[in-house]
Amino acid sequence: MKRVFPILGLLTAVLLSYALYEALVAAPTEQTMGNVQRIFYYHVPSAWTAFLLFFINFVCSIQYLVRPNPVADKLTNWTVIAIAIAACIAAFVIRPLPEGMEPSSVATTGLAIAGLYFLIKKCFSQTRTDALAVVTAEVGVVFCTVVLVTGPLWARPVWGIWWTWDVRLTSTLVLWLIYISYLMLRRFSTSGQTPVLAAALAVFGALDVPLVYFSIWIFRTQHPQPVIGGGGSIDPRMLHVLLINWLAFLFFAGLVCWSRYRLEILQREVEETQALEAMLEPGSRR
Amino acid sequence: MNFLYAAYAATWIIHIVYLGTLVRRYQRLSREIDELKKK
Amino acid sequence: MSESARVPSSVPSGVTGATLAKDLRLEWRSKDALNSMLFFSLLVVVVFSFSFDPNAEESRQIAGGLVWVAFLFAAVVALNQTWARELRNHVLDAYRVSPAPANSLFMAKALGNFVFVVVLEVLMTPLFIMFYKLRALGPAWQLIPVAALGTWALVVNGTFFAAISLRTRSREIMLPLLLFPLSIPALLAMVNATTAILTGELSAKFWIVLLTTYDVVFTIACLLLFELVLNAE
């Protein structure tokens, strides 16, 4: 295990450097925005990584809450399977799909969600699931901060404004705020059951995000605002660079999470040992 | 153009600062482990 | 607690009603929370009036936001003391070991808070109308469902997070820290619905639908998860 880490670290460094080169030099210059558009190659992969990490946190939180209760556990298992099946069916039955979605990707996403759920269930015990939740929340906040910083830095030169209340930016901001409050709860909680409380908060957060999306969508239909980073098709060469950067950042996020995870597990072991020592200390009160 | 470099720099500064906090926590933890081993 | 002993604890509405009645009665007798919240709300209205002195036209545009921010702060003051009384006398432990379902306790607390905050709103609204020369150009009756749904949105999550904050350091600041991010869609809906009704320019219907959805989703979530929170020591 220990030797894999430096090798992966080197691989990640190489990937990141290559991706950086691609983004700054090899990728074609955008027509209207010019070179500033290259921020896109860091902004979007960071966003996707942050959302993936927050999603893993959500899965861990659900599992932590549901696993002690066998009935709830079975119910959730079947719900997850149902979601995967529904996604596969919907992918090929719903015509036409919303813009930008392909049947294969919708089906794959559904299956990936189920796969992720059961993988975490199998590989992580209850306490380790909680450790994973903390880790993904923290690293997710880091990546989300990157998104919220690079976003305005891209918006300002191109659209002339630092910020706008469009769906994606606002949802990202709210998600960031929710997870900061999650981390604060973790830090300030004096309860022995902090994981349960934090998991409840994460579930609330997950319920909130679609509502945020919907509310901003209503707001914008009533008050049209400038659109940032509009949709539409993307040049295949740019897509290639985008995906390379995403892969590099995924490796990077994976390594950071792994380090943080090891730190977390070690910290818990030390705390347990310290607690035991305090109890067994000859002069201590029982 | 400056915005481009600022964005890339900001990204890495944020990541490096976070990794720095991880390193500091590791150091503090290994100190605590040494103290425990001494006992 | 003697009221709940007389009521069969297996009947959820019995426990809820009894707890709610007890809370309201206690509050009416001491008027602790109500007085402090009243004075706080008055101060907020006055301070806001000094900060913004708009004419009637502008005030219709901004009053929605101002009013709901003021109500939000008043609600936080109310929510912060929700569980304080229970904590002082270890009543919470008694609830935990009693066979009464945790949901009943939650509903009682949430309804009690709802009543408090609504009373506050009823008292603050004439002041706001006076200071900001407000007059609704749209259908004014719609303000009632907006106020009711919006207040419930704040109170239901607020009661839940007040219970979570009980087990944290810096209890008073933890509640708004946890509550505000999650309440953003509801706040957006409340403010925009109020502005739409006051200015009469747009329809508040979508916002009312959103508020209803928000209320339903989070009431269910709170009821499902409250037991876990109550039992976390």
Summarize the entry for a quick read:
In chain B, 95% of the residues lie in helices and 0% in strands. Chain B is mainly α.
- The SSE string of chain B, one letter per element, is H
How would you name the oligomeric state of the polypeptide chains in this document?
Answer: heterotrimer
Radius of gyration of chain C: 18 Å
Given the C-alpha coordinates, what overall shape of chain C results?
Answer: globular
Number of helices of chain C: 10
> Helical percent range of chain B?
over 70%
Radius of gyration of chain B: 17 Å
Work out the helix count of chain B.
1
Please give the domain count of chain B. 1
* Largest sheet data of chain C: none
- What's the helical proportion of residues of chain C? over 70%
Content of β-strand of chain C? under 5%
Shape of chain B: rod-shaped
Specify which chain pair forms the largest interface: A-C, 32 and 33 residues
Poorly predicted regions of chain C = 1-9
| Main sheet makeup of chain B | none
How many runs of DSSP E, i.e. beta strands of chain C?
A: 0
What series of H and E elements makes up the topology of chain C? HHHHHHHHHH
- The assigned structural class of chain B equals mainly alpha
